[in-house]
Amino acid sequence: MSVKVHHVVDASPDLPADAPVVVLSGSLGATHAMWDPQVPALAQHLRVVRYDTRGHGASPVPAGPYSIDDLADDLLGLLDHLGVERAHLVGLSLGGMTALRLAARDPERVDRLVVLCTSALLGPAQGWHDRAATVRARGTGAVAEPVVERWFTAAYRRSHPEVFEAARAMVADQPPEGYASCCEAIAAMDLTADLPDITAPTLAVAGADDPATPPEHLERIAASVKDGRLLVVPHAAHLASQEQAEVVNRAVLEHLTAR
């Protein structure tokens, strides 16, 4: 059963009321605030909807485990709640998995698709179950630092310690049950058979230095969907949208506004 997720909408004051909608779906351990670097650029051209994944931020925390279909149902429910028949989707990591599933399952609701630093199959499953067990036993703070170390390159962490600390605190603040249950969704996920069914024009963005979802994961996505393109962003790890915001924003806008 879907849950009503917490969301915010941003748009430039002079944007037409019928401007296209883009929904931003975030990473495991993040709230909608992870997209702050994208909003000023995207909101000049699109109505920008950001939301907290179930089990995160201000969204409900139902008992787990969750599935990728549960997360896709929540996203579909958000579109229905907003009265949006068809939207662009941009998803990073877990948000990218959610967007891929919805684009394959409900293609009529998805216009264009951007997936960043994500995968159609991210094993081994036992690693995700182990992380879920750790979080349930010791809290999300137990995994926050190693998780966020994978989000940014070492050079970026050294030059932006305040960004690293804010991200670490954000992950540590997530509800353990929500975080662990999303880990279980990733453990059970295999979207490889879904990819050929995705007809939305798709931009797959990889961080060149991403240790969590290396570029080959995005290469497979771009090569397997019906209309895919790959962009590898230099000097970026898993949270490429933060570390190389200008490059990512430009690529996302070009893709979403192309006709």
List keywords for this structure.
alpha/beta; seven-stranded mixed sheet; 259 residues; Rossmann fold; 44% helix
Helices and strands in order, then pairings?
Elements: E1 7-10, E2 21-25, H1 39-42, E3 47-51, H2 68-82, E4 87-92, H3 94-105, E5 110-116, H4 125-138, H5 141-151, H6 154-159, H7 161-172, H8 176-188, E6 202-207, H9 215-224, E7 228-233, H10 240-243, H11 245-257
Evaluate the radius of gyration. Answer: 17 Å
Specify the CATH homologous superfamily: Alpha/Beta hydrolase fold, catalytic domain
Q: How many individual helices?
A: 11
- How many structural domains in the coordinates? 1
The average pLDDT value, as a whole number, equals 97
Query: What is the CATH topology classification name?
Result: Rossmann fold
Largest sheet: 7 strands, mixed
How large is the share of residues in beta strands? 15-25%
Instruction: Provide the succession of SSEs.
Output: EEHEHEHEHHHHHEHEHH
CATH class categorisation: Alpha Beta
CATH architecture: 3-Layer(aba) Sandwich
Shape: globular
Order of the strands making up the biggest sheet = 1-3-2-4-5-6-7
DSSP E strands, number: 7
